[in-house]
Amino acid sequence: MTTGQEHVAARRLDDRTSTVTHADPSTPADVAHQMGRMARHLQEQPEVGDALRSIVHAAVSIVPGAQYAGISVVEGRATMRTPIFSDDLVAAVDRAQIDLDEGPCLDVLYQRHTVHSADLADEPRWPRFAARAVELGVRSMMAFQLYVKDGDLGGLNLYSRHPGAFADDDSEEIGMLLATHAAVAIADALRIADLTRAVASRDIIGQAKGILMERHNLSDDQAFALLVRMSQTTNTKLVKIATYIIDKRRVPPGAA
Q: Rounded CA gap, 30 and 93, in Å?
């Protein structure tokens, strides 16, 4: 990762629309109740983005000391971005990490499962980032790795304006429990997304086969074999070849 990579803050969390309610998790029973409710809510989210927004809201609601939260992701092990955050302050802090190429979010994505900084005003691990974060008003941070999938990484990051905000052991324990539930929910949502894409691709390939069968008097197997051969000849994904045939009603140039 290099300095100056583009930061994409695609969406600010709207607390008013979340179904997870704020409460002070002052007792184990309160925490258990909120965690159970959050887990059920996450399982109901078919879209990855909806699951991520619910996780961010839940983090601010139930992790002691957390004033703000965000989800950082790296796609293809290339570019870190923060698509979901509870406050613009999170976007600014994460922008600093990307620009300076150091910070807890980057460490948790690439190196460790949990990263905690009790006071960024006295933090030797990321001196340039720590100084910038303090300028922005953040003194404590805690980050958890959420998932690693095919080169894609995700992390849950918590922020506070107060030093020592996450000193309570409960903060890390509850944060880790939340991250575990979140990782399961994200994995489920990603599987659903993969299945949806697979079904869509199958339908596209089926339509293209039908066109080839009609135009060239081919059997189903022959039409599919022709698609595969065109894909290999042009070094193009099968679904892209099929999409071209559907849109243009002819085979791609150089594929025949």
A: 31
Residues above pLDDT 90, as percent of the chain:
32
Which two three-digit tokens encode residue 102? 């150091």
CB-based burial of residue 9 (10 Å sphere; 0-12 exposed, 13-18 middle, 19+ buried)?
A: middle
Match domain 194-248 to its CATH number in 2.60.120.260, 1.10.10.10, 3.30.230.10, 3.40.50.720: 1.10.10.10
Give the pairing of strands 152-160 and 140-149: antiparallel
Q: Which amino acid is at 67?
A: Q
Q: 82 CB contacts (<8 Å, ≥6 apart)? A: 7, 8, 9, 70, 71, 72, 73, 90, 91, 94
**Reduced 3-state DSSP string for 109-132:** HHCCCEEEECCHHHCCCCHHHHHH
CA 81/CA 91 separation, integer angstroms: 9
Please classify residue 134 by burial: count the beta carbons closer than 10 Å to its beta carbon, then call 0-12 exposed, 13-18 middle and 19+ buried: middle
| Residue 6 pLDDT | 33
How many angstroms separate the CA atoms of 256 and 253, rounded?
A: 7
Q: What is the pLDDT of residues 238-251, one digit of tens each?
A: 888 888 889 988 88
Please name the residue that has the structure tokens 């958890």.
144
Architecture of domain 11-189: 2-Layer Sandwich (3.30)
Q: In the block, which residue shows the tokens 């539930």? A: 181
